[in-house]
């Protein structure tokens, strides 16, 4: 054989349709008999190779024979051709490495726990078909094997919809696949990281690091504690790259959380443009309008036409999506004039001057506190609010999304589904 071990199927193909799915816990510690019917050992674990398709095939068994663990090929149990057990690259032990551990439900974006595993037969042999995360499955594991109730009717998760953490498996040589994580929203990935152990969270962070934009999006969604936890493991250069990709207001908040001796080296590695934006934000306390605002927004000079304003929206590639629904108007030297929604612009004559339309003139000073920001936006039914300096120059904008995020109580951020798998 290519890998030096027996290779065939546990059951003859013509009989597989007579077989039913089995739970891993039903099989662990089962006796292994020789052709004469004498017990020679007991099943300790099942070996699968995660890299082989959506449903990992069972490659063999880890069997306890006397005082030794041996490998038994999947279709030679009757002949008991064995060799000393040794992990091979890419192989995972179901009981030791998966059972009872966290996995990522990539269909729903949450952490689940594998209280039992489902094995199913096919023409080629047995394969890992899914997991049972029900509390009943956890209880079943505590009952002696012969007395365990058959609870396979409980809903299970199809294996193709879950992804195991394998950082703890020394021979797995597999990373959490980036293409699977990309199916999830960055907020969902952040929830998973926050609900996982540090090692599991680190596995996800390392899996996405080849996509700087996604990494930055995830860091924006993490709570401050986890941002600092995972930025600590990054070099100054890598930390600067993450901050460079983040929205300036979020980057400023995270930069201020870094240890003092790291702030300047990381800051100095960022682009001049991002440094300029962060300097502007770091002048203000994070809870003030200046600390909450984005320095990126769509604006036009007084006298611009409606068509020019809409073109400014179309060509903008830096403003957060939440602020793209509003165009701000300022004098040539920067003094704030007012704002107007994109919807109103689309309804207006394209050749009309923007400042001839009905503008919203309200704004807040950079030192305004959160209560002032919230009341102004609520009173005027605004989705975006201008922030000005002491000279009434436009320096930033706050979106309703920023206000909602600040209003969410800290205890609500521990999303139950992501942290418990319920």
Strand-helix topology:
Blueprint lengths: L21 E2 H4 L3 E3 L5 E11 L8 E8 L2 E6 L8 E3 L6 E3 H5 L3 E4 L4 E4 L2 E7 L2 E8 L2 H8 L14 E2 L3 E3 L13 H4 L4 H10 L2 H11 L3 H10 L2 H8 L4 H10 L2 H10 L2 H9 L3 H11 L6 H4 L6 E3 L4 H10 L10 E5 L5 E6 H6 L15 E3 L4 H10 L4 E5 L5 E6 H8 L8 H5 L2
Helix pairs in contact: 5-6, 5-7, 7-9, 9-10, 9-11, 10-12
Describe the structure.
- This protein has about 425 residues and is an alpha+beta fold.
- It folds into 3 domains: about 15-165, no CATH class; about 180-280, MgtE N-terminal fold (Alpha Horseshoe); about 300-405, CBS-domain.
- Helices cover about 35% and strands about 20% of the residues.
- The protein is built from 18 helices and 19 strands.
- The chain has helices at about 25, 95-100, 135-140, 180, 185-195, 200-210, 210-220, 225-230, 235-245, 250-255, 260-270, 270-280, 290, 305-315, 340-345, 370-380, 400-405, 415-420; strands spanning about 20-25, 30-35, 40-50, 60-65, 70-75, 80-85, 90-95, 100-105, 110-115, 115-120, 125-130, 155-160, 160-165, 300, 325-330, 335-340, 365, 385-390, 395-400.
- Strands 2, 3, 4, 5, 6 and 7 form a 6-stranded antiparallel sheet that branches.
- Strand 8 and strand 9 form a beta hairpin.
- The longest helix is centred in the middle third of the chain and has 11 residues, at about 200-210.
- The chain is elongated and about 95 Å long.
- The protein starts with about 20 loop residues before the first strand and ends with a helix.
- Residues about 1-20, about 75-85 and about 415-420 have low confidence and may be disordered.
